[in-house]
Amino acid sequence: MRICIDARWIGARIAGIGRYTVYLMRYLAELGGGNSYIALFHDAAVRDAVCAELGLAGRGGWEVRTVPYDVFSPRGQLLLPRLLRREGVGLFHSTNFMAPLLPFGGKLVLTVHDIIPLKHPEFAPRSKKSRAYPVYRLLMRRLVRRADLIIADSDHSRRDILSLLGPPPGKVRTIHLGVDPKYKPLPTAIRDEARRRLGVRGRLALFAGRADPYKNVITLVKAAEILNRKGGPRCTVVIAGAEDPRYPEVGTYVRGAGMEGDVIFAGSLGEDDLIPLYNAADVLVLPSLYEGFGLPPLEAMACGTPVICSNRTSLPEVVGGAGILIDPLDTQALASAMERVFTDAALRDRLSRAGLERAKLFPWRKTAGETLAAYAELLRP
Prior knowledge:
The protein contains 16 helices and 13 strands. The chain has helices spanning about 15-30, 45-55, 75-85, 115-120, 130, 135-145, 155-165, 190-200, 215-230, 250-255, 270-280, 295-300, 315-320, 330-345, 345-360, 365-380; strands at about 1-5, 35-40, 60-65, 90-95, 105-110, 150, 170-175, 205-210, 235-240, 265, 285, 305-310, 325. It has two domains: about 1-180 and about 365-380, Glycogen Phosphorylase B (Rossmann fold), CATH 3.40.50; about 190-360, Rossmann fold (3-Layer(aba) Sandwich). By secondary structure, the chain is α/β, with parallel strands linked by helices.
C-alpha cells in the first residue's frame, strides 16, 4: 500500500513534532512492512538535510515530494487531496492535528500530541491557537470526525481527546513516544565539556523545552532561588529551548531577582548538544502544568540523569516510579526535592538506575511498530 507521511512539520531546527516525524520515518524505513512511502516536504533545504540523514534518496520503497504550500495553507487544502489521489495514496498520516478536510480516496491518520488550547487556553494565552479558540475548536472537531484513526501520545491525552472532542473510543489509539539509542550515558569527559562550555557553576538543574507558561519554568527558577539563598550546593538552572518573545516572564523574573549568574538560557539545541547536556545535568526538572506526553524526562532517564517532574497529566504515565513527582505549584516541595537529589548520592544513584530501566520500556522501534500495525489494520480489506 502507498502511504504518505506529512514531513512538512519538520523545520530547520528539528525539535518537538519535527523530531517525532523524523524518527517515525527512520524506523518505518527500518521496519519495512511491504508498503511504499512518500515523504511530503515543503522546504527544500529541510528535505535535503532529512533525506541525507535518513538515507531516503534512492532508498527502495521511499519517494520524496516537495509542495509549494505549508501545513496551514488554504491553498494546500485544495491541492493536497488532488496530489494524494494522483499519487494513488491509500493512507495519509499527518504527524500533527492539521490535515486535508476534503476526501482523497484513502484513509486519514492524525497524531494529536495534546489539546492544550481546548482544555487550558489560559496556559498559552498569547498563542495563535488560543487567540483563535473558536476556529481551532471547530477545525479540531471536523478533523476528528474526518480522521479514520487518531493517535494519542499517552493514555491521558487519549482521555482528553475523547472527553472534549467526542470521537468513538475505537477511533483513538494510544501509541507512546519513544527514545532513540543515541540517548545514553556518556563518558565523564563529554559531560564535563558540556558544563564548561556553558559556564555552569555548582549543581546543574536542566529544563529542556520552550518556556511557555504551561511549562511552569518560573517555579523551577524560584526553587533554585530558594536553594541558593539558603546556602549549600550552588544551583545553576539551564533552560535549553528556543526563547519565545510572546512569553518573556521567566527572563523578566531572572533579571528582577538578580539571578543572571544562576540561570543560563542556552537556546534551542540540536541532539548533538542536547544529549551531552542531559548527561551533564545533576537533575532534569519538568514542573509542567500540562503535557501530552513529556519527552524530556524520558530522554533524561535514558541518559541516566535523575528526574523530578510534575505529578499532573501524562507525566506519571511516562516516569512511573523512576523519578520524583511533585506538585508543580509547590515551589518549596520542588526546592526540597532538588536539594535531596543534589546532596544524597545514594538517591541519585537509585534514580539513575531506575530511570535507565524505565526508558527501556519506550524504544522508538516499538513506537514505529505499533504505528505500522495501526496502518495495517486500517488498510485491511
